[in-house]
Design a protein that fits this description.
By secondary structure, the chain is mainly alpha-helical. The chain has a domain at about 10-65. Helices cover about 40% and strands about 0% of the residues. It has four helices and no strands. It has helices at about 10-20, 35-45, 50-55, 60-65. The protein is elongated. It starts with 8 loop residues before the first helix and ends in a 20-residue tail after the last helix.
Length: about 80
């Protein structure tokens, strides 16, 4: 489940996106049109300005660490003890 973590929207967006953009961890597909998204980022934070796109992207930290696979019940055992595989 996605949660806002009891943070204000502005704080959540800054916390989630600022470092990632500064370190080049967010890459925008060059074949897509990003004008609205970039405009919202450049105007953020301002009263009366739409911030829906940065707000949605700010949840990426939760999506990136969420596992959708059930853990295996079996412990890993090497098929070949010498090779470890």
């Amino acid at each position: 489940d996605l949660t806002h973590g009891n943070r204000k929207k502005t704080d959540r967006i800054i916390w989630s996106l600022q470092g990632r953009f500064e370190h080049g961890r967010v890459i925008l597909n060059s074949e897509e049109k990003w004008d609205d998204f970039v405009d919202q980022l450049l105007m953020f934070p301002s009263q009366g300005v739409h911030d829906d796109l940065p707000d949605a992207l700010s949840y990426m930290d939760q999506l990136a660490v969420t596992s959708y696979f059930e853990e295996a019940d079996d412990e890993w055992e090497p098929m070949d003890i010498i090779a470890g595989i």
